[in-house]
Write a structure and sequence with these properties.
- By secondary structure, this protein is an alpha+beta fold.
- It is 62% helix and 20% strand.
- It has one domain.
- The longest helix has 32 residues.
């Protein structure tokens, strides 16, 4: 059964003011244990660690989404030609085999 941890997540409202809201997060016991251990080791509150982790994850997700959108736009406009996946993997296998023989 999962353990419930209540954390505060900072949200930014359109006027640039910061508003603190409470959110319930369900963690597996092993995740909760690791979070508590890290909090004790670093001296930081668990909610701060979760906030940092979510901020980093969302920034990375946005970066990946923008990169994928850009690649799609490049292919759609014809600036980049798509590569057949099977062909690309076959080329990688061949390069790997050639390196082993060298």
């Amino acid at each position: 059964m999962s353990h419930t941890t209540v954390i505060g997540i900072a949200l930014t409202v359109p006027h640039g003011l910061s508003k603190l809201t409470t959110m319930v997060v369900h963690l597996k016991p092993e995740t909760e244990s690791r979070l508590q251990e890290l909090a004790a080791t670093t001296g930081r509150a668990p909610d701060e660690l979760v906030e940092d982790a979510m901020t980093g994850y969302l920034a990375e997700l946005t970066q990946v989404r923008n990169m994928l959108d850009g690649r799609y736009d490049d292919i759609k406009s014809g600036r980049v030609q798509p590569v057949d996946g099977d062909e690309a993997f076959e080329q990688l296998r061949k390069k790997s085999q050639d390196r082993r023989r060298s």
